[in-house]
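U., I forgot to send this yesterday:
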Amino acid sequence: MPDGATMDAPFVPPMPVPRESLPGPLGMLRIMRRNLLELFLARTYSSNAIAQRMLGHRIIVVNHPELVREIFVLKHETYQRKSRFMEQALRPVVGDSLFINHGTVWAERREPIAAALHPSGVGAFHPLFAQAAEELAREWERAEAVRDIAFDLSAATARVVMLATFGPDAPAGAAAALARDFAAYQDAVESLDYLAMLGLPEWVPSVQRRTALAAARRMRALAAGLMEAGRPGPLLSAMRKAARPDGQPLMRREALLNEVCMLLLAGSETSANALGWALYLAFAHPPTLKRLRAEVEAVLGARTSPAAEDLPALPFTRAVVQEALRLYPPVAVLSRQATAPDLIRRWAVKPGMTVAAIPWLLHRHEALWEAPHEFRPERFMPDAPKPPRFGYIPFGIGPRVCAGAAFGQAEMTVFLATLVRRVGMRVAPGHVVMPRLRLTLRAAGGMRMVVRGA
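Result:
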């Protein structure tokens, strides 16, 4: 182990115990509704490709870097469309936004959004990262209390995206409202539409579906109201200015609202989830916490949060975030539906069939990672071997890679550096931390921690 390594003793953070075999259809349905992570068998952590029937539907999972490259990069045209399950799950909130659409519409709209979030311009958003991180640190420092840090982080990162989208007049309370409604939406919506898989139409009544749709309506109404109020921020301004060659607006009101909703959710959910796991991992492993605080102290001195130019000097802080993204990728399933016939290994692919890469499995593949279930941030230090290409994909891969990846990585580094020296935390008595996969990978029941000033 190199000098300064944090792994004095192996630390394997929580995950469901892998099964040896799957139950029958009813048992599988119960598992799928409870936690998709419980479906993964022990052998899938060493498999390169998996073909599985789920309620009569065949799903093929590519679980090797070369297969991931083949499907998501080389054959992007065939697999550019999100799976119908994901489309159905997210359309009530984000409409035909970038997250769902494909083809010409996707290409047209992605260009101005990607330009606004280009890595070269991320520094302009740094004051927003620092502002939201400082607000959260002050709130947590006030008194020792049990907090659901998953909710607090969702509200804080939503605050960043709202400031970037709607400008400085965006009300602070709106971020908490968005975080509450998206949590309610995730609890109600299904990442796999079981009614459709069972052959039932969308109009079949469902309490969960009604609850999800009500939360979706609240989120869209909130975004629509903010779009009409105050001074727009740089992201909304860039989208409004985007025009077709003939000078007509690229996105009119409904399309603009869809893309704004996509930015609000995608721009806050990934960062919040990864930060929650990064904080949990750091405070659960004292050697990591000690090294993390020492690095932040050496770089910041008397300052309370890093400047943009400090981020390259925080490699271990960044490595903790990257390892949290490996172990607990917020978007833990990347699913596509084929638009043309294909052949993956020995399996024929028909149009409409679901093909997926699962970062949860890929990031823990026994042939790609040493001690794959252990927390080892040293894997991502500058002097460590590079992660396997196409084997580490926390922000997706190929043409549909997350346009805000650089934004999110900088934001998470600022938050972690700001919070880790200002607060202490431990798991709340009686609370069990366990990842649960629905639309995104979150801690089941939230992440309840006793938080106090450091």
